[in-house]
Specification:
With 550 residues, the protein is mainly alpha-helical. The protein has 18 helices and four strands. Helix content is 44%, strand content 1%.
Length: 550
Amino acid sequence: MAEQKAAKVEPRQTTPQPELPPELAGMGFFERTRTWFFEEGPWWLCSFVFHLVLICSLALIGGKAIEKIIDEAPAFEAVNVDRPDDVLQEIEKFDIGETPLDPTELSTETLTLEKPAQLAQEEKYYDDSAVFSERGGGMASSSDQPNLGGLGGFDIKGIGAGPAVRGRGGVGIGLGAGTHPGRGGSGWGFGGRGAGSRKKMLASGGGTRQSERAVAGALNWLARHQLANGSWGLKNYISRCKDDTCAGSATSGNRPAAATAMGLLPFLAAGQTHQSKGPYKKTIANGIYFLVKNQKSNGDLRMGGAMYDHGLAAIVLCECYGMSNDKALRPYAQAALNFIMEAQDPKGGGWRYEPKQPGDTSVVGWQIMALKSGQMAYLSVNPAVLEKAKKFLQSVSSGGRGSNRRGGLFGYTSPGAGITTTAIGLLCYQYLGIPREDPAMVDGVAFLMRNQPDKGKRNIYYWYYATMVMHNQPGPDWDTWNRKMRRYLIDSQCKEGCAAGSWDPNKPTKDRWGTNGGRVMTTSFSALTLEVYYRYLPLYKLNSGAAGGP
């Protein structure tokens, strides 16, 4: 056994150790660590800090780029308009019972009512004080002519074929939009919708926290009932309903052009466009896209409807272009105006259902509003078209005193005294430069005051036009009209279920035109009526020392 060989033992494999530099080979661990810290450590520290800063910078730049991409408005190319990505936009239900803290500005917070606040106990709910204070602009002026800051009201002789002459009638000078319509500051155009001037105009114009809360609710309902293709429908909006509270669809059909215009106008009146930061940016972008995508090469926006539909849609394109200054929208807005001018009845000067058809006052009103919106947006409008429209209005007017041939009451297709047609005619007269003290305006306003808002005679189409007429004439009559209108609309707004934020065309009483236009029309016109305080500036300012005087 002694001769037996011992078993061969293989050496254990170990991981090769790195060879230390000669200057560290003879040192212990702590000595080596100390030496490395002072000699090599600073370089490693600098490298670490450099790469950390680089990584953070790249992350920040990337975040800004992503944020910019998300915030960019959808492109509306002049030739080929591409629709924004069809991503469903969830709009949460709006609680009418909540009140925004400071709703004098329709910001993201007030539009969505994320921060409700209770009204002070001593605050009157409807601001129904017995003491009159000047409303509707209230800026002293000694001018005998309309000092224009809003839509129209100019002297037809003071303009050329293009935009109205600044300071000579036309679009006027006052609280307005500065160099870019709709962006606040002093100037003209859509300036009342800018956040900076809306606070002043709401306070002086007659709006309240409750009226702004009602507007926010209406925008919420409209956004929730927009169709997938970006349009609204007077009948098929119910496909977006979550329950059966939104009954009241129109009997006149879907009318996509008119319905989409009705859906978009309250957003534009609130100062929102497809380029605005806010919860409804995509809602507006999809709606504008629908209109321009379906506009014909000759500017026609009827989409199977009538000139009534085209006029409404043309107002939208002109307002959106004027407020956003998006040059890609300009050719569409101008084409819509060109179609209106070409469609005018060459003999009578009016408009009706089809181009060149003898006119009716209702359709004429929408075309004149579109042309005036176009002028505010610095688009081209032939003044001869407006001169002919004035002659049509005179042909359907009645009343008048003495030698005055321009009566302040208006019929539909012939001389008469309908309440709705009178309101439309008076507003058109204001836009066409008829002064406040003209007997026709005096008699017409007196007629409106004899037909003040009454829940037993509900007619939002009439109230919408008449409210704009009265708002243009600040004074005790406007204050009286506004308090009644504002209170009724606030009280009658739906507050429960999917219908919250809308107005029922049949309840609490039946609206005169509610069956025809349905819930979309009733909601749109009600919201626009409550946005009158900042949508357009008053045409006639208060004269110094004469509250409500001419």
